[in-house]
Amino acid sequence: MTDMGEGVARGPRASFLRRLGAILIDGILLGIVYGILVAVLKGTGYALAILVQIAYFTYFEGGSTGQTIGKRALGIRVYDYSRGGPIGYGRGVLRYIGKIISSIPCLLGFLWMLWDKEKQTWHDKIATTVVVPVESYPVERT
């Protein structure tokens, strides 16, 4: 365990542009799913689409690789700042809730990484995570 609030993950961080590219890819994929669900199921499709989005980010970011499809395409992953490795599904949900909080004040929580020393967004801080390049923090294959 480290002191002074410093985490285990001390190496490089994913750049703003890589993170932006990953969220755009994920957004396009989820947007297609959203469009199909709403077209087919109308109002119920909207609620189901929200559940799909929560499940998507929880499963992929909380899973063993910490990578959504967009993050995998851009070679980045969510990483536990305190202990290293995957964050687990509980913190995956917490990180998703943090994304909602990050978006409320004109996306300020997402932009926070531009001046934060650890390049953390608000949702990273809430879930105690960082987003890192895979080349520096390889995904362990089991």
Walkthrough of the structure:
This protein has 142 residues and is mainly alpha-helical. It has one domain. It has 6 helices and 2 strands; from the N terminus they run H-H-H-E-H-H-H-E. The protein has helices at 16-41, 43-62, 69-74, 89-103, 108-111, 122-127; strands at residues 76-80, 129-133. Strands 1-2 form a two-stranded antiparallel ribbon. Helix 1 (16-41) runs antiparallel to helix 2 (43-62) and helix 2 crosses helix 4. The longest helix is centred in the N-terminal third of the chain and has 26 residues, at 16-41. It starts with 15 loop residues before the first helix and ends in a 9-residue tail after the last strand. The mean pLDDT is 93.
Q: Gist?
A:
The chain has one domain.
Give descriptors for this structure.
two-stranded antiparallel ribbon, 142 residues, 54% helix, mainly alpha, single chain, 6 helices
Task: Please render the helix and strand layout as text.
Layout: H1 16-41, H2 43-62, H3 69-74, E1 76-80, H4 89-103, H5 108-111, H6 122-127, E2 129-133
Antiparallel strand pairs: 1-2
Helix pairs in contact: 1-2, 2-4
The structure class reads mainly alpha
What's the number of helices? 6
Taking the sheet with the most strands, its summary is: 2 strands, antiparallel
Query: Low-confidence stretches at least 5 residues in length (pLDDT < 50)?
Result: none
- Tell me the number of structural domains: 1
